[in-house]
Amino acid sequence: DQQVKQNSPSLSVQEGRISILNCDYTNSMFDYFLWYKKYPAEGPTFLISISSIKDKNEDGRFTVFLNKSAKHLSLHIVPSQPGDSAVYFCAATGNNAGNMLTFGGGTRLMVKP
Amino acid sequence: DAGVIQSPRHEVTEMGQEVTLRCKPISGHNSLFWYRQTMMRGLELLIYFNNNVPIDDSGMPEDRFSAKMPNASFSTLKIQPSEPRDSAVYFCASSSGGYNSPLHFGNGTRLTVT
User: Fold this and answer.
1) B42 vs A34, A94, A106: nearest CB
2) Residue A23 in 3-state DSSP?
3) CB A21, CB A89: distance < 8 Å
4) B15 and chain A: CB distance < 8 Å anywhere?
5) What sign has the CA pseudo-torsion A76, B98, B73, B75?
6) Do A99 and B95 touch (CB under 8 A)?
7) Please, which residues bridge with residue B79 across strands?
8) What are phi and psi of B55, to 5 degrees?
9) Sign of CA dihedral A31, A76, B40, B97
10) What is the rounded distance in angstroms from the CA atom of residue A74 to the CA atom of residue A5?
11) pLDDT of B41-100, one tens digit each?
12) CA-based end-to-end distance of chain A
């Protein structure tokens, strides 16, 4: 039972354009969501997060949107850069889960120069 | 800050052998996690320690897997006996606590069991 799903295994975008990565969740107890970026042969690194009391959080080129009614979140990267090419993981947790994260399967983003 | 340190980076072993993976969390972090990444199952949580005490080990696949955290600066994940289906990348992560504290991951150990 996948509680966090990233339905697109890969995404290819031209440099300078917007990248939109999507994530869906099923557990209504999740109230905190995170995005991690992973380069080959490295561990995932924290990118940006959002609490369920917000519907948007922005950090430079990265913005995360949360639609609680749809149980959907998305990560927007604009403008996309070749260095953004990586695997992006969506993760979720809730106050009753300690700080155990449930991860999605990841989306491989390729930004073409 | 050296980050989370895992060793070895790569481990190749034969089926039936014992494998021990090691992790040194970030100093001052009181939560430690072991994750496994496979193509089929993505990143799955194996076990979680808080203040060196195992809190949730429901993700540990079988009795062949065991994890210990003898002190705040060291943890091990042991597989005995190892099987080919255990081949995966194993990540250790730590955090400073609180359910919204981001996890800091090590670079992982790539395990291959032949």
Assistant:
1) A106
2) strand
3) no
4) no
5) negative
6) yes
7) B19, B65
8) -100, -40
9) negative
10) 12
11) 889 999 999 999 999 898 898 899 999 999 999 999 999 999 999 999 999 999 997 767
12) 38
